[in-house]
Design brief:
The complex is a heterodimer. By secondary structure, chain A is an alpha+beta fold. Helices cover 43% and strands 10% of the residues of chain A. Chain A has 34 helices and 20 strands. In chain A, the strands form 6 sheets. In chain A, strands 4, 7, 8, 10, 13 and 15 form a 6-stranded mixed β-sheet that branches. Chain A is globular. In chain B, strands 1, 4, 5, 6, 7, 8, 11, 12 and 15 form a 9-stranded mixed β-sheet that branches. A two-stranded antiparallel ribbon of chain B has the order 2-3. Classes of the chains: A alpha+beta, B alpha/beta. Chains A and B meet through helix 11, strand 19, helix 29, helix 30 and helix 32 of A and helix 1, helix 6, helix 8, helix 9 and helix 12 of B.
Chain lengths: 916, 500
């Protein structure tokens, strides 16, 4: 970008422009600026397909992977393990590819198939099942920090985020080429032919946490961009670019400018939001979306116009009715029993509970009670004036009043209470309320109590309870005297508070904000009132407006599909700057979008904008998807290897930098990377390559010698056994118990979470819509992912944090896992279902039940010692259950209980939780 | 806690070369400092297996656990910490930071502050100043001024070091809670208790080392991330102890299963597990998983004992306020905290306030009703906790911290009776565990709005707490996402003046 005009200008102008040039590209930019030791780092070099070593053990080598592995083992003087037995291999590959164990029938059929192609057939079968995508999408979701809420105080919903989860599942199932998979996630809205599907891919950029009430909005904006920088650079480049946010990376050849270049690619992105709500966007080809939104806008305007006309007619009608005296603006009231608000009123009261329940009756003798002036309570409690101190837990109150037999329309209580209160009129409950008010409020009297009002002497009886904080009570009774003659008008007015009526009557130009809000709130009531008061001619005008409305509504187009994506405002965007110490208030040099200097020879050309965006992301995506990119293919095949074999060939799967781990076998990694590109970025082909290797099919037999030389097994001298992930374990348990619901796709489901766990929320149960048991039994990938509340069965088994890209899960073993899976509700339900299944499928013979259990859970039959141990347990446990129940359990019930106890044990075994 | 296949980049990194970490030490030194004095592979803490007095560990194993006690960086003043979290934001000017000028100018606009160059005043909303409704009293020999809302706590004044110049960065509960608990406004970082447990382990393997006691009205805004382990292993997160029913969720057998029946189940599990293990005899991970079931079984005994108050004397129950409705709930939590610390728990967090608005210290609507309630609930229990710890000789080794996520404005809100959130200046206090009591540290301006003297940021509080527990906040690091992460990020100063 060094402009040629530079030499032609001189003096002050030149100084000025130099300052600018230095900022925008005059500095060296490219790998040439680095020392050789950084420049020559292995992962920054383009992949050169290595020569496949010639194998000295041709029988062992099934494909080039094995040749590379064997070469590594030979160098370390190690021998590969023997092949795994076939049942073990089958369980391994099932859990690996679909996250579920094979059924007994599938085991039988595989063991019976002695053709050499039998295993390849299984692999092809599994890769073609929809469960494959459900399993492998989850690995990807870890890397892109997938969650369906924003975290923080409100932990608000990310609308439509689940569509991205389904998109990833579908992409794996369809074997979407990885270059395309990558491009759509970065720039699905910028590619030629962009459509709903490609745009959903770009949801990836918006999955991070979001504070909808940030302490510092500017810093927060850059935190959001930092989340994108961190996730995209770790996910696709396998580099820790994030560390260069505040200063040049201390150990990697990434400058703060490189960080900013990458950030600048994403800085045009805007979040669709309304206040604190996160919004989704219409999806589809840009022109279609524009046309749709234009049409909707027109229709909205037309509808709003018709509504506005109708409203103004409604107000005219009402105003005329007021003028004609047909619509009373305020209903006259008469006070039957005054509150102590203005003048103190005398009450009888007691702090101790009355001996009998008849204290509410009119004829109860309250002469033994104390007399005091209302209101009652503690000073400072909002609401009534306190004239008599009440600071005990409860108070009982009574007072008389006289009713002179005026006719009235409605009877209302005027009450200030703190806290719970019950009010009786002549012994009949008039109203009760929990909690407290901070001012006097009107409440309708119950129909029964209204009927109890009689001419002459009446008695109000009140009971108030203190629960928390201040306390106070005062009660009065009022009657609304009359209502409009027209019954329809009276009915229509019922829902309108007096101040809303005042607002209608007010001059439209002089209505206060408050009045406008009130009218909007009561629009439906005003509408029905106006139609009651309208003349025939006005009625037909209303009908005309309604016809217009209906016609406009009917011509609405079907809604566009929606997605949870960012958007850009247009082809240009504001200039980005390096921030000193990462502080967005300390602007440094201006920066253009670009890629880390260590990975390029020269600055990239400026991106070509699209009609609606800067084109920056598409340029980045295409650069990443170049066949000769040194990192993209290596990073992805390494992830595939990681999930098949436990660790990546580079064990720091998100860090291929200088600080990252060296590859355990670089020729192997490079060969896989070049194959990946050569095979059209096909992930399924890479699975086949890896799974059909001898390396994958080895036994996990330990070897003390090899363990000493290579304790982590990175040289692949055996298949390293490992615990299956939380989702695979939960799904396996559901499959074994027979409860798994295979339904695919759609919004997340909410398995039951115990009350005790929900109580850790500030609003217990908030945002957790417990699903019915059938929905709750769906695969774990469909469980709703709420950032502040995780399903315990998944959380305790090291479900990853969703705040950042997680490349490799922790495997921890702690006692709370054992508690959850010994005593939790989920595991008990599954053990019970498993036991019932055994009883149903294997009949009454305990040995047959045990065999069935082993075949379902472990894909094998029990050996003699196991059978004997379980038989003994069943007998002992049944005896214990019977004894503990003290004869309350039938023999059959005790049998089933012992069987369920055994099932629970089986679901907790290492053999179930590990693949080997 | 076993963390056997934690795939932090450490593993292969160490295999390559000892190398300077961003903290300027080699990885191995880091492990010696933070991880403990065991010799073995540098990976040992990750390959860790429970020490659970276990029978199942392979002989000669060099593995240690994240949870086993580890030596501090230097001699600690405090072995345990009880953090009394006043969720919602208690008002400094009504409790610990007397401001006569504020009361004198009650009802007047707040002068100058909107344009005061010392701070960015944007939350006063043009509302008038609101004087305090309560008197302050000189307490103890030190004469520390404490509100009459805390009469009992006032009697312990000589134990307290009140920090009047705290400040934080968020006006919102959600991120404010996160910052006070994890040091970061952003979600996803380990909480203080996780850092302490990570650095020091815990002495009683039959109980969780990091316990959280929530308010009976609900959790704080933001929920579990406030006691989460962030990017550390989940085993380092706080365990919620409940005050009724099972103290730990899913502690007791369900569905009428008796302890004898469960013992039979565990015996079968162990029997089948041992048979399975014969195929993989050296696999310590499998052994650890079997052992974790035995630990869970032992926890069923130890956890209820730890929170069973039956063995406490009637006098103790009375002093903690368990016989009075107002103090009963919080008093119970304080007493449980003392029992847990006595049994070796490393970090106990006790919440006062849960849910929303007046269910916690968030006094927008009215100071009087809100603070009278929450002070009355906590005054006696906290005073008793301090006295009880002292009587048992535990106060010297137990750091007690009091405070919320922020304080409140000196200006009014809500019918002129309440106060809004204010992170610019607020009060916290510490006691016991190496603290020099009877002092007030730092100051806010004349209205109590912003910290102006000897300002103490949340990072400084955290650095000081870690220091008192024998941990150097700059050396206690966890490698994550390409760098050594710290509780205090790149900030934090130990406030030595607070320390005896």
């Amino acid at each position: 970008m060094g402009p040629p005009i530079r030499s032609a200008i001189a003096g002050g102008l030149m100084l000025l422009s130099l300052a600018c040039l230095a900022a925008r590209g005059d500095e060296p930019y490219g790998r040439g600026q680095f020392e050789a030791d950084k420049r020559d780092h292995w992962s920054f070099q383009t992949v050169v397909p290595p020569v496949v070593p010639s194998a000295d053990d041709a029988a062992w080598v099934r494909n080039p992977i094995d040749a590379f592995v064997l070469a590594g083992l030979r160098e370390a003087k190690l021998k590969p393990a023997t092949p795994a037995d076939r049942a073990t291999l089958l369980r391994r590959v099932y859990l690996d590819l679909i996250g579920l164990p094979p059924t007994p029938a599938e085991v039988d059929s595989f063991l019976a198939d002695t053709r050499p192609t039998a295993f390849a057939a299984v692999v092809d079968d599994l890769l073609s099942r929809p469960q494959y995508g459900e399993r492998w999408a989850r690995h990807w979701l870890d890397v892109v920090r997938y969650a369906e809420t924003n975290g923080y105080e409100r932990d608000g919903l990310k609308p439509q985020a689940w569509r991205y989860r389904d998109w990833v599942i579908a992409a794996f199932n369809a074997d979407k080429p990885y270059d395309q998979f990558l491009i759509e996630q970065l720039a699905g809205d910028e590619i030629p032919g962009s459509n709903e599907n490609s745009q959903i891919g770009a949801t990836m950029l918006r999955l991070g946490p979001w504070d909808d009430e940030p302490a510092d909005p500017l810093a927060d904006r850059y935190d959001q961009l930092d989340d994108i920088v961190a996730t995209t650079s770790a996910t696709f480049l396998g580099l820790t670019l994030r560390c260069a946010r505040c200063h040049d990376h201390k150990f990697e050849p990434f400058s703060q400018k490189d960080y900013t270049r990458w950030l600048t690619v994403f800085s045009p992105l805007k979040r669709p939001q309304k206040d604190r709500s996160d919004l989704d966007r219409d999806l589809g080809p840009y022109q279609d979306v524009m046309a749709h939104q234009q049409l909707v806008k027109q229709l909205d305007a037309r509808i709003e116009g018709a509504k506005e006309q109708a409203r103004s007619l409604e107000y005219q009608v009402c105003q005329r009715a007021v003028a004609e005296g047909r619509l009373p603006l305020a209903v006259p009231k008469v006070v039957l029993a005054a509150t102590s608000q203005a003048e103190p009123q005398a009450w009888r009261y007691a702090f101790e509970p009355p001996a009998k329940a008849d204290w509410i009756e009119a004829d109860f003798d309250d002469s033994g009670w104390k007399t005091g002036q209302g209101g009652f309570g503690t000073e400072g409690t909002p609401g009534p004036v306190v004239r008599t101190v009440w600071n005990t837990p409860e108070i009982w109150l009574r007072r008389e009043f006289t009713y002179a037999e005026q006719p009235f329309a409605e009877l209302r209580l005027l009450v200030a209470h703190d806290d719970d209160v019950e009010i009786y009129l002549n012994g009949v409950l008039a109203d009760s309320a929990v909690g407290f008010t901070t001012e006097y409020r009107e409440f309708p009297v119950s129909p029964a109590a209204r009927a109890a009002l009689r001419p002459g002497r009446n008695v109000l009886a009140v009971h108030c309870r203190q629960t928390t904080g201040g306390q106070a009570i005062d009660v009065g009774l009022i009657a609304a005297l009359e209502q409009p003659a027209n019954q329809e008008v009276a009915t229509a007015m019922k829902d309108l508070p007096p101040d809303a009526l005042q607002a209608i009557a007010a001059d439209p130009a002089k209505r206060s904000d408050n009045q406008r809000k009130l009218l909007a709130k009561h629009a439906a009531a005003v509408q029905s009132l106006a139609r009651q008061l309208a003349t025939g001619e006005e009625r037909s005008r209303f009908e005309e407006f309604e016809k217009q409305l209906a016609a406009s509504k009917a011509s609405y187009p079907a809604p566009m599909p929606k997605g949870y994506v960012w958007y850009e405002e247009g082809p240009t965007a504001a200039v980005s700057y390096v921030f000193r110490r990462g502080d967005p208030r300390q602007q440094g040099a201006a920066v253009d979008p670009g890629f880390p200097a260590i990975l390029v020879d020269a600055p990239p050309t400026p991106p070509s904008p699209t009609e609606h965006s800067t084109g920056r992301r598409l340029q980045l995506a295409r650069w990443l998807a170049r066949p000769d990119h040194p990192l993209t293919a290596r990073v992805m095949v390494n992830r595939l290897w990681q999930h098949h074999f436990g660790d990546g060939i580079v064990a720091t799967e998100n860090d291929f930098g200088v600080m990252g781990a060296a590859p355990a076998n670089q020729p192997l990694l490079d060969w896989l990377a070049s194959e990946f590109v050569a095979r059209g970025w096909s992930i399924k082909q890479m699975h086949r390559l890896m799974l059909l290797s001898q390396t994958y099919q080895m036994a996990s037999t330990p070897d003390p010698v090899a363990e000493r030389v290579d304790p982590t097994g990175s040289l692949m001298w055996r298949f390293t056994p490992r615990r299956i992930e939380a989702e695979a374990l939960r799904d396996t348990i559901l499959a074994v118990s027979g409860q798994l619901n295979p339904l695919a796709g759609g919004p997340g489901v909410y398995p039951k979470i115990s009350r005790a766990v929900l109580e850790t929320q500030s609003r217990p149960g908030d945002g957790w819509h417990t699903s019915d048991p059938l929905q709750a039994a769906r695969r774990s990938v469909y469980v709703f992912l709420k950032r502040t509340l995780l399903v315990p069965e998944l959380e305790v088994l090291d479900f990853p944090g969703t705040e950042e890209s997680c490349e490799q899960r922790v495997v921890s073993t702690v006692a709370p896992q054992a508690l959850t899976f010994l005593n939790g509700e989920f595991i008990h339900e599954q053990a019970q279902a498993f036991a019932e299944r055994l009883a149903r499928e294997a009949g009454p013979d305990p040995a047959a039940r045990i065999e069935r259990a082993y075949r379902l859970a472990f894909c094998r039959v029990p050996n003699e010692r196991e059978r004997a141990a379980v038989l003994e347990f069943l007998a002992r446990n049944k005896a214990q259950v019977t004894a503990d129940s003290q004869g309350q359990l039938s023999d059959a019930a005790a049998d089933l209980k012992a069987l369920a106890a055994f099932c629970l044990v089986l679901l907790n075994t290492n053999e179930l939780a590990y693949v080997q | 806690m076993s963390d056997s296949r934690k795939r932090e980049p450490l593993a292969s990194r160490e295999a390559m070369l000892p190398r300077l970490t961003p903290c300027g030490r080699t990885r191995r030194e880091f492990i010696w400092q933070a991880g403990g004095g065991f010799i073995g592979t540098a990976l040992a803490w990750m390959l860790a297996q429970e020490g659970f007095g276990g029978r199942a560990l392979a002989a000669g194993s060099k593995e240690a656990s994240l949870m086993t006690p580890k030596p501090a960086h230097f001699a600690p003043k405090a072995k345990s910490c009880i953090f009394l979290f006043m969720y919602g934001g208690p008002s400094q000017v009504d409790l610990f930071d007397p401001k006569p000028e504020l009361t004198k100018r009650n009802g007047q606009p707040m002068p100058d502050l909107e344009n005061d160059p010392r701070f960015d005043a944007k939350r006063t909303n043009g509302r008038p100043l609101l004087g305090t409704l309560w008197d302050f009293k000189k307490c103890g020999q030190s004469g520390l001024e404490i509100s009459t809302l805390f009469p009992k706590l006032g009697e312990r004044a000589d134990d307290l070091a009140i920090i009047r110049s705290c400040h934080a960065d968020s006006f919102a509960h959600g991120s404010g809670l996160l910052q006070m608990n994890t040091g970061s406004l952003r979600q996803g970082y380990p909480s203080l208790g996780s850092w302490v447990t990570y650095g020091l382990g815990t002495v009683n393997q039959n109980l969780p080392g990091y316990v959280v006691l929530l308010d009976h009205r609900g959790g704080p805004i933001g929920g579990a991330p406030n006691w989460g382990a962030g990017f550390m292993p989940a085993g380092l997160q706080g365990t919620q102890f409940r005050t009724s029913g099972d103290p730990i969720i899913d502690l007791s057998p369900r569905g009428g299963v008796t302890r004898a029946q469960q013992r039979q189940q565990l015996d079968l599990l162990s029997q089948l597990g041992e048979m399975h293990r014969q195929q993989l005899p050296h696999d310590t991970e499998l052994a650890a998983r079997l052992e974790s079931y035995e630990l869970a079984f032992r926890m069923q005994q130890h956890a209820p004992e730890a929170v069973d108050l039956a063995s406490e004397s009637p006098a103790t129950l009375e002093q903690y306020g368990l016989n009075h409705a107002t103090t009963e709930k919080f008093g119970r939590r304080c007493l449980m905290a003392r029992r847990l610390v006595e049994r070796g728990a490393r970090f106990v967090q006790v919440y006062s306030g849960g849910g929303h608005f007046d269910e916690n210290w968030d006094a927008h609507q009215g100071m009087k009703k809100n603070h009278e309630l929450h002070c009355a609930e906590t005054d006696q229990p906290i005073a008793t906790l301090l006295a009880d710890l002292k009587d048992r000789g535990l106060l010297d080794e137990t750091l007690v911290v009091w405070g919320g996520e922020f304080g409140r404005t000196p200006t009014s809100q809500g019918d002129n009776k309440g106060r809004d959130h204010n992170p610019r200046g607020f009060s916290m206090w510490m006691a016991g565990g190496g603290i020099r009591g009877g002092q007030a540290y730092g100051a806010t301006d004349e209205f109590g709005y912003a910290a102006v003297e000897k300002r103490v940021h949340v990072h400084d509080l955290h650095a000081t707490i870690l220091h008192l527990m024998g941990l150097n906040h700059e050396a206690l690091t966890f490698f994550h996402g390409g760098r050594e992460m710290r509780l205090t990020d790149v900030a934090g100063n130990v406030i030595h003046d607070l320390i005896a």
